[in-house]
Amino acid sequence: MSEVFEGYERNYCEISSNLARKCTAASGLDGELKKQKISEIKAGLDEADGLLRKMDLEARSLQPSAKALLLAKLREYKNDLSNLKSEVKRISSSNANQAARDDLLESGMANSLSASNDQRGRLLLTTERLNQSSDRIKDSKRTMLETEELGVSILQDLHQQRQSLLHAHKALHGVDDNISKSKRVLTAMSRRMSKNKWIIGSIIAALVLAIIFIIYFKLTH
User: Fold this and answer.
1) Do 76 and 123 touch, CB atoms closer than 8 A?
2) Long-range contacts of 70-73 (CB under 8 A, 24+ apart)
3) The dihedral of CA 76, 82, 86, 89: what is its sign?
4) CB 3.0 to 4.6 Å from 62: which of 20, 46, 66, 217, for a disulfide?
5) Looking at beta carbons, which pairs linking 68-71 to residues 24 or more positions away fall under 8 Å?
6) Dmax over Cα atoms in the chain, in whole Å?
7) What is the pLDDT of residues 87-102, one digit of tens each?
8) 96: which DSSP letter?
9) pLDDT for 111-142, tens place per residue?
10) What pTM did the predictor assign?
11) Does the structure show a pLDDT above 70 at 187?
């Protein structure tokens, strides 16, 4: 969750609680004191409204998964602020007489404040649930990052193995070339040996014929 949004959220909750207390106090006042208190409340409402606008801008600038959670919170806070504004309107219009004010405090204000308290209770529950959802999203992101790191490590290992295989293939290709060269050398040597055998055989045959001729010549003369 955005830290900026959380800062705005804390400020709003403090202002909302303060405004609720001021509404309760203003209900028991008369004359100028009541007008002054209502002015303070309206100023607080403007400040709260400004915070909600900032929260809306911050939420819409985040990723879709986080934005949906924060916008759901924001709707609850807007409902809460709307209830406070309604209370202020009722307080401002309750100057007819003391009996009307008492009736308003006993019925309308009591019900409104009770509804506002219920609304805040639902807000707290919703906030807790949204925080739990945010924690689950963070856990999922952490798992995704760990999986991504594992995938990168596996790819690096595969790349190293590929390089090793390519190196082995080049080495085998070099061995094949050396074997081919050795085979050609051995073939040439074999041919020269065969040629030399024929030459030696021819020389021996010539010597044998020469010896036979000499012996025959001596025997005949």
Assistant:
1) yes
2) 70/1, 70/2, 70/5, 70/130, 72/126, 72/130, 73/9, 73/123, 73/126, 73/127, 73/130
3) positive
4) 66
5) 69/1, 69/130, 69/133, 69/134, 69/137, 70/1, 70/2, 70/5, 70/130
6) 179
7) 999 988 865 454 455 5
8) S
9) 556 667 778 888 888 888 888 877 888 887 88
10) 0.43
11) yes
Q: Which amino acid is at 129?
A: R
Relative orientation angle of helices 110-220 and 3-27, to the nearest 10 degrees: 170
At 2 the three-state DSSP class reads coil
Between CA 176 and CA 182, with CA 177 as vertex, the angle to 5 degrees is 95
- The structure tokens 């490590």 sit at 153
Written as six digits, the tokens of 88 are 């202020």
Q: Using CA atoms, how far apart are residues 109 and 112, in angstroms rounded to an integer?
A: 5
Residues 3 and 67: their CA atoms lie apart, in Å, by 13
Q: What phi-psi label fits residue 2: left (phi over 0), alpha (psi between -120 and 50 degrees) or beta?
A: beta
